[in-house]
Amino acid sequence: MIVKIICFFYYSNILMQLVKFYCPLKPHIILQEKGQVVKQMDKTYMAERFDNAALGVCTRLRKILSLLPQDIKSSASEIRLRANAPLCLSSKSGQLFISNNSTVNYIYKSGLTLVTTQDIEECYNLLCGFSIYTHENEIRQGFVTLCGGHRAGICGTAVVKDERTVFFRDISSINIRIAREIKGASNGLFDVKNGLLIAGPPLSGKTTVLRDLIRSLSVGLLSEPCRVALVDCRGEIAACVGGVPQNDVGPCTDVITGCGKAEGLEMAIRTLAPQYIAFDEIATMEEAQSVAYGMHSGVSVITTVHVGSVEELKKRAAVKAILASGAIKKVAFLPSIGHPFSMCDVENFEDGSFTIKAEKEACRGA
Amino acid sequence: MVLKYIGIFTLAAAAALSGFYFSNSLYKRVTMLSAMLLFAQDVSVQIRYKQADIFWVLKHASAMTFSKDLPFKNKLCEINEELNESSINEVLHKSGVMEDDQKLICEFFCGLGKSDISGQLSHCEMYAKLLSEQIKAAKHEADEKGKLYRTLSLFGSAAVVILLI
Q1: Which SS3 state, helix, strand or coil, does residue A348 take?
Q2: Angle at which helices B117-164 and B99-110 pack, to 10 degrees?
Q3: Which of B53, B114, B116 is closest, CB to CB, to A129?
């Protein structure tokens, strides 16, 4: 009898392994369904995030934004303020102009809420927490990270010293990008052991997918819980405030924030012994070299890149360098929010040219 | 008769104490300005070292021992919005800071958080120098006027006693 029971468990285990091997997408389809449930439930959450991002806007404009309908709040991805121009939101349906009575207009007309230079100045001070010096490095790069992980892009007249932008004066426009944590956004991404590059155009949800993937790895949704080092230069992924991540990046994630990517990568590899190392937006050759260094240390690299198409990937020098080093063997291309991403294999890297073979299309949780 | 003596003694004591009070307030001003100088230096150190936001820096400096002589330290910690002229002036006015000092201290606080780190350090350094000069002037005033107030009050109380007895 005992032998029979042992045999039953043994064979059922083998059967489960076989199912997992031949139907790798099945668990993710279930997760995908869960993801859709999460997405439907989270409309309130999306509106809450909008209100949270609107805390970086001056009191006068915040009052107008707070009275917007929940549907508009949940669909908005950016709040745009331009000096002497109407208050504007970016959403899937395009640019929305806000009028004084908090109604939304799809066309530019009179009676819209005009943003004054005083509003811009007040917003700038608010975004910096009345302490501009604390955001010196960020402002130099043209952005400020808000509490909650939202990113405010800043435009103005650059003050240049030694051919380098030191600061911005006469701020002319501010673009607050609303950060939203969407659990299940990385469903379908499971083969990341050999490194993964998440590619896509701006506003395609690369950072959201990356954040969710980090959480999944750290929690152990893909396999056992893994040690993940996150180099969060702009504070967009984990959004640490007082050392505590505001976004859920999992229990086994160590976050380095504030320093340069290349420097952070080296630091993480030397001191944190990660299994995975993740960072956002690879852009320079220096970062690419650091990634190559990471690969030779036995760490899997997960990162993102701004590209419009798979073909454009081949034209980016930093991406070429990474793919040449063999640090990343998979590319997930995200066309735009809500659309399924395609998983590609990087193959035949020879003399600076390589082929990207589309493996399969996978669905996103959100 | 007894009541008369009690009245004379009270008047004489009041005259003498008022002189000592004014003299003491001059020395208190010196102590306050010295504390303010240390406060500005601590703000500068914290901006350079921690690079934390200005409200944290102010709270940190207010919690230090040298800040015990700053009458406005508690009210200053309550400010959570922009350090603007009106809010700072209100805090300083309520704390009974002299007008000359009020202007200088208000300018110092209003300039905090408005520039990059090197700008902030220069700002703190400049106001530390201005405060040092103010302290020198206040010390000189306290030494000269303080002595005068004490002497005058003693003579005044003596005159009261002589005239009324």
Answers
A1: strand
A2: 170
A3: B53
CA distances from A112 to A47, A64, A86, A103, A155 (A): 22, 11, 6, 9, 22
A196-362 CATH: 3.40.50.300
Which residue type, as a one-letter code, is found at position A135? H
Residues of chain B positioned with their CB less than 8 A from the CB of A125 = 82, 113
- Spatial distance between the Cα atoms of A263 and A256, rounded to a whole number of angstroms: 10
Q: How many whole angstroms from its chain centre is CA A366?
A: 13
- Asked if A76 contacts A46 with a C-beta cutoff of 8 angstroms, the reply is no
C-alpha dist (Å) from residue A124 to A40, A56, A130, A156 = 34, 8, 8, 11
Question: How does pLDDT run across A112-141, given as a tens digit for each residue?
Answer: 999 999 999 999 989 988 888 888 888 888
CATH code matching the domain that covers A43-177, chosen among 2.115.10, 3.30.450, 3.90.1720, 3.30.1370: 3.30.450
- Spans of all domains in chain A: 43-177, 196-362
Q: Residue A301's CB: how many other CB atoms inside 10 A?
A: 25
Q: What is the DSSP code (8-state) at residue A254?
A: E
- What pLDDT sits at residue A24? 40
> Tokens standing for A53?
């991002």
Closest C-alpha to A239, from A149, A146, A152: A149
Written as six digits, the tokens of A239 are 């959004």
Residue A100's nearest CA partner among A72, A60, A69 is: A60
Tokens of A106: 């799809």
- Are the C-beta atoms of A249 and A255 separated by less than 8 Å? yes
Burial readout A302-335 (b: 16 or more C-beta within 10 A, e: otherwise): bbbbebeeeeebbebebbbbbbbbebbbbbbbbe
Q: In which domain, by residue range, is B40 found?
A: 2-164
Cα distance from A88 to chain B (closest Cα, Å)?
26
Asked if A322 and A328 count as a contact pair (C-beta separation under 8 A), the reply is yes
The total number of structural domains that make up chain B: 1
Mutate to test the interface with A, among B116, B118, B124 (most CBs of A within 10 A): B116
Contact residues on chain A for B52, CB-CB shorter than 8 A: 131, 134
Residue A254 contacts residue A279 (beta carbons within 8 Å): no
Express each pLDDT in B30-72 by its tens digit.
999 999 999 999 999 999 988 888 888 999 999 998 888 888 8
Q: Coil, strand or helix: which one is A102?
A: coil
Question: Which residue from A235, A238, A191, A233 is spatially nearest to A214, judged by alpha carbons?
Answer: A238
